[in-house]
Each structure stands twice: as C-alpha cells, then as structure tokens.
UniProtKB/TrEMBL annotation:
This protein's name: Integral membrane protein
Entry's transmembrane regions: 6-25, 37-59, 65-82, 94-112
Organism: Demequina lignilytica
Keywords: Membrane, Transmembrane, Transmembrane helix
Keyword Transmembrane set for record: yes
Amino acid sequence: MTVLRIVLLIVHFVGLAAILGPFLDQLRARSKRITTAMVWGARAQIVTGLALVGVAYASDHEPDHVKIAFKLVIALAVAGVAEATRKRAEPGAAYWIVGALTLLNIVVAVAWR
C-alpha cells in the first residue's frame, strides 16, 4: 500500500506541475491561455486525489473530511474553468482563476492540519 501511495502522490505532484508550470511560464506573456497540459493536470489532480483518499482509508487512516471536501471543490472548480475555457484564444479572467485556485489548493494542502 505504501508503494501505491507514493506512486499516486508523485502523479498528483506531476498534475500540479502541469497546471502551475504553464501558468507561471505565461505570467510575462501578453497573450495568456489555458493549455492542454493545464486541463490534463487538473484532471490528474482530481483522479489521483480521490485515489489517495481511498488508499488512506484502506490503510486505516481516516483523513480530515472537511479538508478533503474543500480541496475537492477547489480541484473541481479548477478543472471546470480550465475545461470551459481551453479552446478560447483569450481566456481573460479564467487564466487568473485557474492559477489562484491552484495556489489556494496548495495552501490548503500544506497549511491545513
């Protein structure tokens, strides 16, 4: 179970990097857009996050339900905004929303104990 948890955690971090990397890379660009990598990263975050919760339950570790629900809602919002605006040439505020919610999810993951 430990190996599965570590593999899922690594894939979870790769999903995070797929969202945050393009976001940070485009900060200085005139034209910002939601990339395909950001969309797939958001999808990966949801799937691996749910799998990590399942592994925690299987390992007799009860995660904080409120924290998990909060993170899931944020992740679903990131994925929804990214999916809805991925084909737009100029996503407008959606680019900033995806970046801000991703950073918020990191803060919740690290600071919420």
